[in-house]
Design goal:
The chain is of the alpha+beta class and 537 residues long. It contains 23 helices and 17 strands. The radius of gyration is 24 Å and the shape is globular.
Amino acid sequence: MPINKFPYGIIEHNDNPAIELFGKRLFADQSPLEFLIEFLLVINSPKQVDSEKFERPFPSLETLAAWGDTELKYSPKSRLNLKLFSFLGASRLDSRHETHRQHYKELLESLRNNIKVTETGSEADVLRTLENLFLGFQGVGSGRTWCAQSFLPICKGFLAGETIWSESVARRSNPASWSDSVASHEKYFASNKKLFLARGGEVLYLQVCNALRQKPSEVKQWVKDSGVEIEPKEQDPIALHASLQQELEKLFLHCPNTVTEIAEFIDSGVEPETAFATDFINGEKEKPRYVTAGWCAAESWKEGYIFAVELLRLCKADLDIIERLRLLETACSMQVLRTLAAQSARHYSLGNEVSWPGYRFAVSAPEGGEPGVKRISRHTAKLAEKLIYGAIRSKDAMSETEDEERRNNSLRKVDKGYGGKLFMSLSKRIGLLIPRRGPGVRFTLNEQLLRMLVVTTVPVGGRLTYDKFKELVEARHGLVFDADGFARASKWLDGNEHFVKTGIDSWLKEMLDAAGLLIHLSDSCALVENPAQGKVA
């Protein structure tokens, strides 16, 4: 059957079956932090849907309900001056074009002239301190050209779109000055290549938008049938929309506004011409330069709804800003994995009955534990690869017009960059699969993953029984930890459950206890506690 897209409706098959299946696009070269950076970039940029222009995180409910074939457009800032000031000194020498060096010197001189030191020290000391401070917020891309690097997104002033220096073009044309290079910035500073901010954050954003436009009755029925058991207020997409708008707008309030003010001053305060040239058409402020977002699968609204609830709980929890960002980063990565697995299960069931979420992954102890458990976990890791491999080759995703040789060549590239390789590499990056290198990969948890699961599964400041916690983690993420769960994860165990001992999940209890997340009531009963309290309004 054709795969419906949001926001475009049914369109022609894409040449890349993974994009056809999962959305445009989820790509293996995008790191966990870059998924979060791009998602927050869309959230905090001016946006447009149809004739509505808005700066709030999401469109109005009326626009969401009427959203049809119109593309989402958003206007990210490039922040070239800020990146130049912060990252040029730590970039590769061969990536520093002469125009970059010259503008860097001019930018430092302009900043020096705007600094007044009233006590001991000098303007040069202040500049070095600021440069070291902002370099310390480098988030990803340390081996790249300075403009292709990204900041840790602790404030709005650090959010910037991807910019790639076209070195080969510069060698041929050799711009005479910085002004020449930014005046023709799409020629020298390409912002449309999507190499690292590769649209994954756009897909996550569109999934949330798609979820928030669903009918309340349909959401409640799905929650009842799927067993995800979210709170009554969270089951109402209208209330969820309002709460998520409010909480995401307050996300950066915990970072001192001074940081953003200094970043904005460095980027556009002392030398505004660069920002005008890169962020606006013909340098006209009333004409922001928009980027067109892609699409997601319309049927992925279910995983999108769970993700929206997780975002709300992470935003409401009283966490310090760095911990919140780390948990948000993990949540974004887990949403990508959930999208790959759930969407694959819809279109390729491996012969099993498809019920939400359509897949199960057997999780084993980090240090290894029982050999039989490790084997089952490895088996489900292989099943995950097989599930995605088969879904990409399903008749729903594949174009029927390609010849066989071209199709096989295309599929090899898809497997490497978009399919099973993405699932495996991203899972390894966040610690869901180990080892990072070598054979025999299996599912496990680390402290970061465990804390994210607790904070997003247990209501803020609340408690769940240990068994209920495992049940909800299975319903929302497909992760199983005990003998019964393993039987659901692997049909190989049919009639052979006696090979799996009871109590194989004792390591999970020990991890929860060591992290201060478990309350023992008796030998047979324990509570999982979410230690993150709600923020004080």
